[in-house]
């Protein structure tokens, strides 16, 4: 524990504890990981501590104010462009003192030197969101614990006040106890907008604030002004001015570095919002550097991401609170940033950023192409059964086999090296083609397509399971995996592969039982062990950590198991397995909560303990809201609807066809029933349920279409 001195001051009826434990948060906005290479003092800071890439996502529209507010809230927040205006209590704005403007808008008494008049609008904006957000929760928690919060600096231009850093430091009423944000920039013809930060005055203020201790937020406005000016200027000239501004900022940071006692203090350099050039190139991750007590030289990591070198903006506030030995309050969802030892961190992160960005750019093209292939195949299939035009049934079977192999092919890591998009598509196509050819050779398709279906499904769920056992190293890089820039998930199994995993497992074992003649007792044991293993991998915080997937897969597996071995009319079986499954789920949940790492499931349980049913309500609202948005915008919606439409048509036409298929492939159709139930629950219980449902339908719909082509061909 750090040594500290505490002195009490009386001000406006409040007791303020001035803690000599100091955390300096330097806000150096609009810089990229590539900029760090040219800034010697930041490189010096990296040698003392850790560096990483930070996800900058906020709630609502992606814009600077929301990203600043998110850091201060500890959960994704929305500002809708509000919050640039912050005033010193004595500062004159539009003819009125800041204190009067603030009191007139909020009705609150003033106790801080820095005021955010738009706090009522920010609170109102975040009440509209689908999860609980408390603007200013970081500042409020520090204030409640008697820890001083101060802010210095601005990014003002000649026609606008820009003091967004106040959103990271303010308390719940939009006030900051101490600081100075009206330091006028110096006139300089060689600087953007003819202004540069008065770094001497900034440094003097910083030294004064150090005597108070607590959190000191230093807002370096030059980097923001330079980025805004770059948009307006000749790009060569803009680049030169921006580089000069960054060098000045780096020199100032060097002075702060020389002031900080790293054995006792914490220094964080954060970039809340990407630069203009970064956004243009789809590079949305920004650098974060942290140095001080208990921070190793290497890469940052947090329990939010569980990925070396990657953290989220919601992790900054919990890191500061943990430094001051304070409990992270609900509804902060971030986790404290830690470090792991690593060498050549900067070059590693530059390459990692390139790979993540390239995957982010490639993802929509490949996913849309794959969805188009499924829809195109369905159209060809309908044309075949209705005899609209000639379609070669054998080639159509091959085409569906190829589509069935794509999720497995997308796992292979060599596809996702830093190569062009066209080469990625070429390698992906070749991989799927090779798997398809192997399945054809094994089963002599199209004569015996059930063998191909069995091979592809089993190969798919084995590959995904193997990857999960080794912490999803392939999935992290897969275009069907999760997206670091999107920030919906950073570890475990994403909803895309979750849908693929449980459906390919059921369809793989079902089709295997169609061709393998084994006794019923052996089937029960094999199916029970396999289903429990896959369920454990999906639900475990150590592996899949997917709550919605756990519910969907468990229900799908249990339904399939009952349909296989028991009569549907035997209600005692349902009661028996409901009791057994409830006990098993309860035991697993207790084990995960007591001994496992934190996951979405365990966090929900802890929230229910402390907050009652409100967190559950918010989770349901969030999932419904997300699915509604995805239904409108994701290409997976089209794939899901086309698949459902085709299966509905097959149930009615040709007459008696579906019944005959059920008689010929009884195990497979029971598997389809179990998978369909899981698909429905995946749709209901996941944030991106549309995606999970669509990917699970791949392995329940395509096998039916393949076997239908064979059966219809024999009829004709």
How far apart are the termini? 81 Å
Q: What is the β-strand count?
A: 19
Average pLDDT, rounded to a whole number, is 88
Largest sheet: 10 strands, mixed
* Proportion of residues in extended strands: 5-15%
What is the C-alpha radius of gyration, as a whole number of Å? 29 Å
Describe this structure in words.
With 716 residues, this protein is of the alpha/beta class. It has two domains: 316 residues, 3-Layer(aba) Sandwich (Alkaline Phosphatase, subunit A); 328 residues, no CATH class. The protein is 57% helix and 10% strand. The chain has 26 helices and 19 strands. Strands 3, 4, 9, 11, 14, 15, 16, 17, 18 and 19 form a ten-stranded mixed sheet that branches. Strands 5-8-10 form a three-stranded antiparallel sheet. A two-stranded antiparallel ribbon has the order 1-2. Strand 12 and strand 13 form a beta hairpin. Helix 15 crosses helix 16. The relative contact order is 0.09.
Highlighted features:
716 residues, alpha/beta, Alkaline Phosphatase, subunit A, 2 domains, 10-stranded mixed β-sheet, 3-stranded antiparallel β-sheet, 26 helices, 57% helix, 10% strand, disordered N terminus
